[in-house]
Amino acid sequence: xxxxxxxxxxxxxxxxxxxxxxxxxxxxxxxxxxxxxxxxxxxxxxxxxxxxxxxxxxxxxxxxxxxxxxxxxxxxxxxxxxxxxxxxxxxxxxxxxxxxxxxxxxxxxxxxxxxxxxxxxxxxxxxxxxxxxxxxxxxxxxxxxxxxxxxxxxxxxxxxxxxxxxxxxxxxxx
Length: 174
Ligand SMILES: [Zn+2]
What we know:
The structure is a single chain. With 174 residues, the protein is an alpha/beta fold. The chain contains 7 helices and 5 strands. Helix 5 runs parallel beside helix 6. It is globular and about 40 Å long. The chain starts with 12 loop residues before the first helix and ends with a helix. The C terminus is likely disordered. Zinc ion binds next to helix 5.
């Protein structure tokens, strides 16, 4: 029965929700960037999303492999999360948005601010240089709008599901 054991969850709540966001990231069909987002309030998940073409818009290989077409049509994980909440009539006011593995872009930042998100939590990974301007603008907007942004260490670059969370630094960010 050992193989039925679920992987051990990280101890810290921020890490747990980032792990969940990473799970949704894995559902993205985007060949180059897979991002997941989870909106949480009082430790309960309100909505989730991952990047992809809008529902009903055919995500053919031709579209997904053409960078320009893909960038034009793709709904980012954070936007999909906000749209899902809207479809279900769920308010995100005061919620925290967990995004894996990248910082929110400036377009999503403006949407998250308008949706009433209070906190944004991302893993503390190296940010790809090509989106640095957008990330910096997002951070500047969040600061101005009073939205906090936290970068959480995940102790290892690839698989946070592994039982590798070290008590020492879990304590230090708790
Ligand atoms: Zn975005």
